[in-house]
Write a structure and sequence with these properties.
The complex is a heterodimer of chains A (about 260) and B (about 250).
Chain A: H1 3-36, H2 43-53, H3 58-80, H4 89-127, H5 130-136, H6 141-178, H7 184-194, H8 197-223, H9 228-260
Helix pairs in contact in A: 1-6, 2-6, 3-4, 3-6, 4-6, 4-7, 4-8, 4-9, 6-7, 6-8, 8-9
Chain B: E1 2-11, E2 14-24, E3 29-33, H1 40-48, E4 55-60, E5 63-64, H2 70-74, E6 77-80, H3 92-96, H4 109-122, H5 139-151, E7 157-161, H6 169-186, E8 189-193, H7 197-203, E9 206-211, E10 214-220, H8 230-237
Parallel strand pairs in B: 3-8, 3-9, 6-7, 7-8
Antiparallel strand pairs in B: 1-2, 1-4, 4-5, 9-10
Helix pairs in contact in B: 4-5, 5-6, 6-7
Classes of the chains: A mainly alpha (about 260), B alpha/beta (about 250).
């Protein structure tokens, strides 16, 4: 085999593996959606997932947002000073947090916290035969493990994004009024006047998409896990990598869609 | 009655089952023995539908196991997994009553808890264990909880995968006795996988030896020590020399 053919063969194998993975993920997503609409439904599992994905993620989301909002205010103030535009801090912090940084950072935090946790939990269940045990107990793992987690993330991550947006804006507000000399009432009025409903809706829609991706990747990699501790480790690492990349790619696509509306 | 007819299963290039023919009479206890990696677990997972065989037929009471209502089919089975496979996030009683808290066998929560505690008593565990998490229990206690879960819905057929693996000899004896008592008491059909010859003698009515993907020997447990089959003889005596390669 010539080097050129060998290189092409390698490229072909990589491309085939990539498209096979895309196909498997797409089938997994379709199966998840299909199971979400067919009984039985596990309300207790859904409530549990809502608590773990939503409530327990609030501290990390809040801290990420407040520091990002504060840093954003400082950056815009310093950058704006170069062309006498320091006054736009409230508007840029608001639009930056709501349209871009809020959803993306919350999405990435969810990928780090929730995707990894879901993947590790399901992968461990797989290697310890708990998934097989579920089946022998007449319980479908997709319905019992996957649907509640994906549904919970789909419902609760937009709320987390909303909370993150507000906390981020308040982080900018605290820095602007505390250290940059902005008037508190004027800052809030400028923020409220500048934001449009479409900005908020796009933020929440991105949150829903990112939540779906984060939970789906956790479940997919967990269910596909190999054997032993190494299999669990690989599943966890792979799930976070895939979720983070897909969230950023989806953000680019959704931003393009929202701009075109 | 469970029947396997010419069942094959290959993973990649590894042909694990190469034509299994086996039958277990209703109410009897069959123990499958064989070396590690010979496909014992694959055999019972094929019956349960956890693994799909490549070819062959599996019949339960004359009906093809792969056809029909899956939930109704699985509701007839109980299974004790090798590592107990208890659900870490659920307390012991909810593990035991798992099948009774959802699906076609669903009962009111209080009744399911009562049944779970009764089954825990049956396997020698006190009610105070009910609210503990599986991680707080010893290996032997986890096996007992797994056993309680396997019998919680009074199944007709019970599978035991390496029930004494990892247990000390005394605890292994306790588990063996429990399995025998429960199977006799419930009149259930039992299939057990084990390497442990003490378990074989305590649990089995009949024994099947799996080697090279086929049943090499099959007969009553009383014939175990009088057989001249070289494979079975080597396995029972634990000899390094014989037709079974010591290093596989």
């Amino acid at each position: 085999m010539t080097p050129l053919i060998a290189a092409l063969a390698t490229l072909g194998r990589v491309a085939l593996a990539f498209f096979a993975s895309v196909g498997r993920v797409a089938l997994f997503a379709a199966s998840t959606i299909s199971h979400a609409f067919r009984p039985p439904f596990y309300a207790r599992e859904l409530a549990n997932a809502l608590f773990h994905v939503g409530w327990l993620s609030l501290p990390v989301v809040g801290l990420t947002a407040v520091f990002t909002g504060g840093a954003l205010a400082l950056q815009i103030y310093a950058g704006g000073a170069r062309f006498n535009a320091e006054a736009v801090v409230p508007q840029i912090v608001a639009i930056g947090m709501v349209r871009e940084l809020g959803p993306v950072l919350v999405g990435l935090m969810i990928a780090a916290r929730v995707t990894s946790s879901i993947a590790a939990e399901i992968a461990t269940m797989k290697v310890t035969e708990q998934i097989d045990a579920l089946v022998t107990l007449s319980t479908h793992p997709m319905k019992y493990l996957v649907v509640p987690r994906v549904l919970a993330a789909l419902l609760v991550v937009p709320l987390l994004v909303g909370v993150g947006d507000i906390i981020g804006i308040m982080g900018g507000y605290a820095v602007a009024t505390g250290t940059l000399g902005f008037n508190a009432a004027a800052y809030l009025k400028n923020t409220a006047d500048f934001l449009q409903l479409a900005d908020i809706l796009s933020s929440l829609a991105k949150g829903a998409a990112f939540g779906f991706i984060a939970a789906l990747m956790g479940c997919y990699f967990g269910m596909q896990s190999g054997r032993g501790a190494q299999g669990v480790g690989r599943a966890t690492k792979g799930s976070v990598e895939a979720a983070a990349v897909l969230i950023l790619a989806a953000n680019f696509l959704l931003t393009g869609v929202f701009f075109s509306l | 009655m469970i029947e396997m007819k010419n069942v094959h299963k290959t993973f990649g290039t590894n042909a694990v089952l190469r034509g299994i023919d086996l039958s277990v009479a209703k109410g009897s206890s069959l123990v499958i023995i064989g070396g590690s990696g010979t496909g014992k677990s694959v055999t019972i997972k094929c019956i349960l539908g956890l693994i799909e065989p490549d070819s062959g037929q599996i019949l339960v009471d004359g009906k093809d196991a792969s056809i029909g209502d899956r939930d109704a089919f699985l509701a007839r089975f109980g299974m004790l997994f090798q590592g107990a496979a208890l659900f870490d996030s659920l307390p012991v009683w909810q593990n035991v009553a798992f099948r009774l808290l959802r699906g076609s066998l669903k009962r009111p929560r209080a009744e399911a808890r009562e049944i779970a505690i009764e089954k825990l008593r049956r396997v020698g565990l006190t009610p105070d264990v009910a609210d503990r998490l599986p991680a707080e229990l010893s290996g032997g206690m986890q096996k007992r909880v797994g056993l309680a879960r396997a019998i919680a819905a009074d199944p007709e057929i019970i599978f035991f995968d390496e029930p004494t693996a990892g247990l000390d000899p005394i605890m292994a004896g306790v588990i063996n006795d429990l399995i025998r008592e429960i199977v006799v008491e419930m009149g259930a059909t039992a299939m057990t996988i084990t390497h442990d010859m003490n378990s074989v003698r305590a649990i089995a009515d009949n024994v099947a030896m799996l080697h090279d993907g086929v049943i090499k020997w099959n007969g009553p447990v009383t014939d175990l020590d009088t057989t001249e089959d070289p494979y079975l003889h080597q396995f029972i005596t634990g000899s390094a020399t014989g037709p079974i390669a010591a290093i596989r």
